[in-house]
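> @MW can you paste both from yesterday?
MW: sure, first one:
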Amino acid sequence: MVGREMRQEKYDVVVVGAGIVGLASARMLQRRQPALRMAILEKESQIACHQTGHNSGVIHSGIYYKPDSLKARLCIEGAKLLTEYCDDHNIRFERCGKVIVATSEQEMPALDELYHRGTGNGVPGLRHVSDKELREIEPYAAGIAALHSPHTGIVDYRAVARAIAGDLQADGVDLLTGFQVNAITSLPDGLRITSGSDSVYTSYLLNCAGLYSDVIARKMGVPTHVRIIPFRGEYYTLRPDRASLVRGLIYPVPDPDLPFLGVHFTRTIHGRVEAGPNAVLAFAREGYSHRAIRPDEMLGTLAYPGFWRMAGRFWRSGLAEFRRSLSKPEFTRSLQRLVPDVESQDLLRGGAGVRAQAVSIDGRLADDFAVQESLRAIHVLNAPSPAATASLAIGDYIAERAIHAFELR
């Protein structure tokens, strides 16, 4: 944490949020414009505490995303940049491969659509496999057919974030932790950003605040076209003596109407096998458990017309997710569709993450990354999965927009 005396300096650019997207955006802008005086503001005492630190560590290959979307382009580019960065910084990653499993004939059209999307996006090595080939790749998986993505990988994104933060600090970028943004005031020559009795001054701002990105935008008086609705994803972990049931990554065919991928099995870079996540409406933006309730944030969600329009469309899915959240047998049955040998006693309660899902006023769940510009600021308003995979590419994209919008030379 940088001392109070540093907090009175004037910066050229301040980044709000030290998750992997904020760090990567600062890094790519600093590489393009090394003379800029920059700082990163983080409300927690350390970096990568929320979406970055709670995801399952998958390096996505770009199968799910509509061709020509930002997600598709930046995921493919970002996976390449990420693995190169890991090689350069001696961060361990593994291309363990992934299967997306169809368990019924009804899922075959959606599986075919994923294949066309993936090949359209240039996913390397993606292919259809039969039920026999599926069992050769994942002996305990059950399905009538699958897609195999051999280049999908796993990594520890906290380790990546720490490395990026180290690079930034070595190059003179200030990292101010424990700095919760309370107010942002427009000045004739820039912005004053206040946290309690501390303030920093900047010419321009990059809003990479994740779960609070829309809140930061509203503090600047910016009318956003979306609101962040938090969805908790809960995990179980396979008992170590049952981890051999899963070699790599085993996913279901997802519901094409929702941006969630369904409960699945993920072998982590640390050797555990995680099972999940579900997608349950959280009652706080950092609501990592049922007991985590922030009345003001919950009321904000309930007062938003887009929430009720979304709920009207997906209430059946929402109720099913709550049942699965409250019932371990229900959760187990979902997993048994993919790996029938998994039993309830094989599952140990794991952690949870919260997805910052942008929802528009008409109730649509934003499917692509969403970036909005305002006077002196750029706001990253929707960057859920695969944002960690794509982080360096997102950072380069944000840096390019910042140089143009802020006329940085």
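MW: second:
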Amino acid sequence: MTRDDVPTLTIAVDAEAATDRDSWLALMDQIGEEAGHFQPLGARHWAFFVDESPILLVSFESLDEIRADQPGQMPLGHAIASGQGWSHLCLIADGETWYRDPAVYGYFDRLVDDAFFEDFDRVVFYGAGMGGYAACAFSVTAPGATVVAVQPVATLDPAVVGWDRRHLGQRRLNFTDRYGYAPDMTEGTGEVFVVVDPVQVPDAMHAALFRRPHVTVLRCPHLGDRLEVALSHMQILTPMIEAAGEGRLTPAAFARLWRARRQFGPYLRQMLTLSEQAGHLSRAARVCRSVTNRMSAPRFRKRLAELEALMAAPPEPPSASPPGQ
């Protein structure tokens, strides 16, 4: 029997019923028994695997975000993979571990020894922030894989990125041993897509460290420091990962998705704010006019009227000098 002959498994267990961490872990273990596996990796990591098809999505996610933010308390990668009928492997971290744990290294070593990734026609590694770092760092185990990394960090080794004052408490972790420096670990991958807001200086500096011919930087200016959340709200994160899984993610394909910013309120408000802060009233008016021409936006319509009135008003005469001056 080939993989294509295996019927798609419907996961009937609802992890949303879990009311605490232990019950959630128990439910995930139950799902893993039915679908693939759910393994603890040391004290602060787990591997959750669902075997469905010859396309595999490998995601790196945090326990707190899964339980607090994701529908049904299931990993984001699970929602994307199940929607496409793909297989899914999720590495789950409890806290800011940065996946720097020999138990995690050992798990990937076993996958390599078992030729696990060779069972799949296409493999996509995905993560954001800490998960973006891990997606790049562990992609070395699956030659030819595609990587989609949102706001990836190259390393937290202060000898390399001493300029990054974020995550100071995690600098004590060892980023110089196995699977350490993420840009080097992407050697042998197929394509690496680094998604970054270049206005966020530390993120842009980390992105610049991924200097390889197979790396494509996809720029999303003015979306802020919670880029994964913004892309998700814009409804382009899932299509981007789906395109990677189908081998059709390119800069041109991303540019078409990126046009969704023209309907995304936080981005439009940021464009208006930046124009006004720079004193460019005519540019601010153009932003408002563009928005009101395309969508119902009372706030922008009101601000456009105010800006047009300001620009139409005659300039104030200079104040008279006091007598004797």
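> thanks! DSSP finds 14 helices and eight strands in the chain.
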